[in-house]
Amino acid sequence: MLEHIATSVLRELLGQTEARINEPKTDVEEKADQLMRLACSGDKPGMERLIRSWPENLAREVHALIEKR
After folding, report:
1. Would you state the pLDDT for residue 45?
2. CB 63 within 8 A of CB 47
């Protein structure tokens, strides 16, 4: 019984993950991903240039999304 429940939970999580992968990303999500890639590579100057190139409201939205993640 426990194995059946675990399998069901894993299938549900997999389905949710697949649904997110297939959904088109918003501009804010794309920018957050781009910023996180730079952060993971340790490119602080690149991060700063990227953030400065955005309008202030976009930078705030990206920041909020990253904080939420």
Report:
1. 93
2. no
